[in-house]
Design a protein that fits this description.
The complex is a heterodimer.
Chain A (H helix, E strand, L loop, with lengths): L2 E13 L2 E12 L3 E6 L5 H8 L7 E6 L2 E2 L5 H8 L2 E4 L11 H12 L3 H14 L15 H13 L5 E5 L7 H17 L3 E5 L12 E6 L2 E5 L1
Parallel strand pairs in A: 3-8, 3-9, 6-7, 7-8
Antiparallel strand pairs in A: 1-2, 1-4, 4-5, 9-10
Helix pairs in contact in A: 3-4, 3-5, 4-5, 5-6
Chain B lengths: L1 H40 L1 E6 L5 H5 L5 E7 L2 H6 L6 H10 L2 E7 L5 H12 L4 E5 L2 H43 L1 H9 L4 H4 L1 H28 L1 H8 L11 H23 L6
Antiparallel strand pairs in B: 1-3, 1-4, 2-3
Helix pairs in contact in B: 1-6, 1-9, 1-11, 6-11, 9-11
The chains are: A alpha/beta, B alpha+beta.
């Protein structure tokens, strides 16, 4: 099976003498659903950041979507990011833009025409049950609604890989179920690889998944 | 409100640069007009043993526009009571020819010296008076004025450019969150910074418009034009096509170049 992420002896750190992930080797199959769990401060989010190039490997090799992340050029990184959908715990919505335009962001960046992006955004806002909120601004919505917008944005450009950092961390039950069903749908219907960093794996998930656990800088696969 | 304040800061800074450039241009034009006036009043006196036609004098230097003989009758008439007619006739015959030579431009002191030398090479020309001393003082005063305005304009342009740079860093800081989110989705630098370029372009257009309006009002109320006319100078301080286009070019050039600078060389803290 093809691998979308390959790490070999990967070490990550923010400071020179403080290693967060130490010599980890693992791979993630294309089209799989993966959970990464671990205690607070274990390095889950740091690992996820390395997948979208926000942090460079300190040692070892990391390849995402066939792109070598070691000393990656800005243009290559931009190209890779245009094929990844990211969901953040703090949503990272542009507060000066309407919900509709926020969802449209990846399509604007990829250069889609307004006709194509407009219909795609309408469809996605329908999926996240926010079609009636399209003209509002992020700060006018609840946290759950904002995360659903962020989810719609992550799916807008049909990415090959979705990276989600605690996507339901602070959400109500309804918003959480919408997020999980969208991630599940993207994985089963669109064959998108989904990597989720979380504290708890939801019980309602009906798909096979892989589970990695980070402990003391080591990544172990949980059977 | 904060955004409006930032816009006004940049517009005022750009307007100041444009105004200083336009003032320099207007001073340059005024001095050029004054030079023309001086040129019309200025002439070189030539004393020669033989009569010259204008064409003969013009062939000696390309600077000579025209010449006119200075009549000696008035001088001789004054001597009528003091000398006999015979002596007066003799004096009339031996008296050299005087010419007033007008030039086609206002000469620099060096050009006057060169012209004097050139004319004096002709053996029949006895003396050339360029009034270089008086002329030199006026000319140097004019150049000094022009240079002071130039230095002043350059200093204003430099200081305000730094202010614009600071202002744009503030914009960059204000839009940093949006730009970083766009970067996470792979937006290239130009797309992330499009908002900064758009603001810079809009403010450049507004600053140019305000400059045009200011000079239109100066022109309309005519207080400067009247003062200049009083000293015999007629000059267009602001050309609403050429000057407006040049000002727009400068405003766009400065704002876009400085935006490029902060996009390409972001602050270390960013």
């Amino acid at each position: 099976m093809d691998k979308v992420i390959i790490a070999q002896n990967l070490s990550l750190s923010y400071k020179e003498f403080e290693t967060i992930i130490s010599k980890a080797s693992f791979s993630i199959d294309t089209g799989s659903f993966v959970f990464i769990t671990g205690a607070s401060g274990s390095g889950k989010s740091t690992l996820l950041k390395s997948f979208y190039g926000a942090i460079e490997p300190k040692q070892g090799q990391l390849s995402v979507g066939g792109v070598n992340m070691n000393r990656i050029s800005t243009s290559k990184l931009n190209f890779l990011r245009r094929h990844i959908g990211i969901v953040f715990q703090d949503y990272k919505l542009i507060k000066e833009w309407t919900i509709e335009k926020n969802v449209m962001l990846p399509l604007i960046i990829s250069g889609y025409t307004s006709d194509v992006s407009g219909s795609q955004v309408q469809k996605l806002l329908g999926h996240v049950k926010l079609i009636h909120q399209a003209g509002k601004y992020p700060l006018e919505l609840s946290g759950g609604e904002q995360q659903r917008v962020a989810m719609a944005r992550a799916l807008a450009h049909n990415p090959i890989l979705i990276l989600a950092d605690e996507p339901t961390g602070n959400l109500d039950e309804y918003s959480s179920s919408v997020i999980w069903s969208l991630l599940e749908g993207a994985n089963t219907q669109l064959k998108t690889t989904v990597v989720v960093v979380t504290h708890h794996i939801p019980e309602q998930l009906n798909i096979p998944y892989k589970h990695y656990h980070i402990d003391a800088g080591n990544i172990n696969e949980i059977a | 409100m904060k955004s409006l304040k930032n816009h006004i800061s940049l517009i005022i800074a750009l307007f100041t640069v444009l105004a200083s450039v336009q003032i320099y241009v207007a001073v340059d034009r005024t001095i050029a007009a004054y030079e023309t006036r001086l040129k019309d009043d200025y002439s070189v006196i030539v004393v020669a043993n033989k009569a010259f036609t204008t064409e003969e004098l013009k062939s000696m230097s390309s600077m000579i526009e025209r010449s006119e003989p200075i009549s000696t009758t008035q001088v001789l008439d004054r001597l009528k009571g003091e000398m006999s007619q015979k002596n007066l006739d003799l004096l009339r015959l031996t008296l050299p020819k005087f010419y007033r030579i007008y030039l086609n431009r206002y000469p620099s002191p060096k050009e006057i010296n060169n012209l004097q030398r050139l004319l004096q090479r002709n053996p029949t020309i006895e003396r050339v008076e360029g009034f270089a001393q008086t002329h030199d003082t006026i000319y140097k005063l004019m150049l000094l004025f022009k240079n002071v305005v130039q230095v002043f304009s350059l200093a204003i342009a430099a200081v305000t450019s730094l202010l614009i740079l600071k202002e744009m860093r503030l914009w960059q800081f204000q839009h940093a969150e949006r730009m970083s989110i766009m970067a996470l989705f792979g937006a290239p630098v130009w797309l992330r910074s499009a908002v900064l370029f758009r603001l810079a372009i809009v403010d450049a257009i507004i600053a140019t418009f305000i400059l045009c309006l200011a000079f239109f009002l100066i022109d309309y109320y005519g207080f400067l034009i009247t003062q200049l006319k009083a000293i015999g100078i007629s000059v267009q301080l602001f050309n609403f096509v050429d000057d407006a286009l040049r000002s727009l070019g400068i405003a766009l050039g400065i704002s876009v170049a400085l935006t490029f600078m902060i996009v390409i060389f972001p602050n270390e803290e960013d």
